[in-house]
C-alpha cells in the first residue's frame, strides 16, 4: 500500500488481487522449473522412464530455464 498526500488529501493506492496474482506467477514459474530440472536430472541418473521420456523432460527443463532467464532479464524476478 502506498500513501500519497497532496493538498491535505490522502490517497491510498493498493494492488488489486489480479495484479498480486500476476506478480506472484514468475516466482511460481521459477519453483516449478527448479522441480522439473531436478526431476530431469534424477531421471537421467537413475534411468527412470524410457529414453524418449527422459529427452522430453530434459527439453522441458531447458525451456523452463531459458524462460526463467528471460523473466530475470526483463526484471520480473527480484534477484
Brief summary of the model shown:
By secondary structure, this protein is α+β, with helices and mostly antiparallel strands. The chain has helices spanning 17-46, 51-73; strands at 2-6, 9-13.
Features:
alpha+beta, two-stranded antiparallel sheet, 2 helices, 67% helix, 13% strand, rod-shaped
What does this structure look like?
By secondary structure, this protein is of the alpha+beta class. It has one domain (21-79). It has 2 helices and 2 strands; from the N terminus they run E-E-H-H. It has helices at 17-46, 51-73; strands at 2-6, 9-13. It has a two-stranded antiparallel sheet. The radius of gyration is 20 Å and the shape is rod-shaped. The two termini are 22 Å apart.
Amino acid at each position: 500500500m502506498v500513501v500519497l498526500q497532496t493538498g491535505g488529501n490522502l490517497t491510498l493506492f493498493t494492488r488489486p488481487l489480479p495484479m498480486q496474482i500476476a506478480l506472484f506467477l514468475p516466482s511460481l514459474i521459477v519453483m516449478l522449473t527448479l522441480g522439473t530440472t531436478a526431476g530431469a536430472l534424477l531421471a537421467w541418473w537413475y534411468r527412470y522412464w524410457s529414453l524418449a521420456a527422459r529427452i522430453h523432460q530434459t527439453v522441458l527443463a531447458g525451456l523452463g530455464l531459458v524462460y526463467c532467464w528471460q523473466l530475470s532479464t526483463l526484471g520480473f524476478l527480484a534477484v
